[in-house]
UniProtKB/TrEMBL annotation:
Enzyme Commission number(s) from the entry: 1.6.5.3
Record-given protein name: NADH-ubiquinone oxidoreductase chain K
NCBIfam families: PRK05715.1-2, PRK05715.1-3, PRK05715.1-5
Keywords for this protein: Membrane, NAD, Oxidoreductase, Translocase, Transmembrane, Transmembrane helix, Transport, Ubiquinone
Length: 103
């Protein structure tokens, strides 16, 4: 049974999500929002993997998505720990106001 949506529609949605993520990374200064934008970009990539995996009848895309999800979970945990440490030390999570190179 063929899906109601064509592959190009999934790829267009993925491209839109990726562009929104890039815009969030480039325009926002809050560390939490930047991390959420990176997660959105990773999920856009996951959608591409799932789309090609479905339309090519190959399960390797699904396996790769699980690997990306595991790396994204680790990235989120480390990123939130860094954001918490930034807030404890500098009382801000704004990227512009925190200079980590200072002693």
């Amino acid at each position: 049974m063929e899906s109601a949506l064509a592959a190009n529609q999934f790829l267009a949605l993925s491209a839109i999500l990726f562009v929104i993520g890039v815009a969030g990374v480039l325009t926002r200064r809050n560390v939490i929002v930047v991390m959420m934008s990176i997660e959105l970009m990773l999920n856009a990539g996951n959608l591409v993997f799932i789309t090609f995996s479905h339309y090519l009848n190959d399960m390797s895309g699904h396996v790769f998505v699980f690997m990306v999800m595991a790396v994204a979970a680790a990235e989120a945990a480390v990123g939130l720990a860094i954001a918490l440490a930034m807030f404890k030390n500098r009382e801000t999570v704004d990227v512009d106001e925190v200079n980590l190179m200072k002693g």
